[in-house]
Model the fold of this input.
Amino acid sequence: GQHGEHRALVKHLAGAALLAVAASAGEAAECRLALLLAMDVSSSVDAAEDVLQRGGMVSALISPEVQEAFFATDAPVALAAYEWSGRYNQEILLDWTLIREPADLVAADEILAASKRSHNDFPTALGYALGFGAEMHERAPFCLKKTLDVAGDGQNNEGFGPRQAYANFPFDGVTVNVKVINAEDFEGETVLIGFYKGQEIRGPGAFIEVADGFEDYERAMRRKLKREVSPPVLGTVGMPVPPKG
Done:
């Protein structure tokens, strides 16, 4: 009778609710990548360069090829961003956000587009910037892979360096890729790339992307994001894939 139907309906709804919880837990667990972007705002980056860097990051994130990489599978990417300069000068621009659909990426991008530079007169404390990134990754959603994408236009010149950061902060399972900004007033591409190759990149498939000055930032960022976010090709998991174009 009615009671039986009512009990059946309650049972059905309870089952549906359990399925929904299980599905959401499954979706949370299948996050394929936690990607953390770190932007250099040390004193060697002037106001015009900061505009190019910030604008380049914002444009690159919603470029067609990067969007295609973000949504190449149903498994989402968790995205966050911060800017760094001196020892105690790191500011979160975008806290961890799960990117499940294009609207999520656009919303995250708008937060970054509205961000204002926090500091402009502090030196380049790379070790501290890396430590901050490691601690941010500690509270990221669970994802199968963790990447820290660091942009820099100069060598460490304040506090401990990258090697000490790797030894003393929780970097287990974190790949660190670097975007070297080869600015004209710096000591030259080979010196800078040598520093980053020797000390800063780490993890399987870690790589360096070079921006030929801040004007080239958006192009370099597009290439770098596409490479970081694209799901691995079957049979090449953990292998570095040569960039195209």
Q: What stands out?
A: Confidence is low (pLDDT under 50) at residues 17-29.
